[in-house]
Amino acid sequence: MLPTGTTPLGARARTFNMTARTHRIAVSVFFFLAGCLFSSWASRIPTVKDRFHLNEAELGAVLFMLPIGSFIALPFAGWWVSKFGSRFTTTLAALCMSVLLITLGFCNTVAQISVTLFAFGFFADTMNIAANTQALDVQDIYQRPLMSSFHGLWSLGAMTGAVTGGWMMKINAGMNAHFLGLGIPSIILSIIFYFYLVNKDQVKTSAVIFAWPDKSLMLLGAICFCCTLCEGAMADWSSLYYRQVLQDAGGVSTTGYTAFTLTMATGRLIGDRVIHWLGNRTVLIGDGLLIAGGLALALGVQNPVAVIAGFSMVGLGVATVIPIVYTLAGSNKKMSPSVALAAVSTVGFTGFLFGPPVIGFIAHETGLRLALVLVLVLALVIVVLAGKMRITGTS
Fold this sequence. Notes:
Mean pLDDT: 84
Distance between the termini: 51 Å
CATH architecture: Up-down Bundle
Low-confidence stretches: none
Largest sheet: none
Oligomer: single chain
CATH class: Mainly Alpha
Helix content: over 70%
CATH topology: Growth Hormone, Chain: A
Radius of gyration: 21 Å
């Protein structure tokens, strides 16, 4: 009689566990790369402002190109994933993001950087939809919540990009060297880990390619809108706000954004357990209150320590909003996960589309401090919308 550990059933279980872990690691790598690539760009926004001598309104107009590209990508991304699979689409988008980040470092005119930002945003959101579809596939394999931990890897990547960007600016490294040093390893990792992604998506037989979100998805999209506007504001304006409070142009302006990404990463890495313990609705309400409280502290007390503490609270509040929204959207019965994600993101990412540039225009007229009050108001809207989730059956 064979020992228990050598039975065919035991061997199959070990093979399954190894395969599942391999898929999880591969998807985690792509989430990390997506966060690092995006945050690397965001960390150099003050450099772009200084290089091209832009005021807040002009910088806002340039930054507007990235979310436009993201927004336009959404319906195409859902279709591409349904047509070609999330494995191929995730890898292609990661490769394009890496090449475009390198290109951003060599742009010499505002026109060049605007066009490149448009393309960067297009493939960033394509990767967002495809990688989250992969995450839903792995979550189905494990049969337990994993989405928050995947987004935690995105946040760790974002923190890595912010820290690296701050260090590069401190040593006066050029954007071209900075982005080249990150883009080439990202290309290599994307090619390697392509082979370890889930090869076949879970597609519902009743799935459609294009669909307008129903009432429950619209609610999720509205929550996503408020959250992505907050994330976009932190990415695009937190470094400039912190530099204003610090009143030292030579200081490390990414410190506030780094604090935001650190607590966001921490919140996401523990988020699956918190969500399982408290439930989606309760966690979302708490998220909105944390974001509002953190912004009230950062804007109300113009002291570097208070700003760092406030941005840390915002990061913790933002942490689990998108993972919850995406998990609920992916469980929609009327369409495939990729199309449901695209439908929610189409509504939600208008916050990423309009938020940062609108803040720039308002800041030009009233100052950045007052402009960021808009984000505080939308954090309270998350609380209100989360309170209505029970009505739509998404609690």
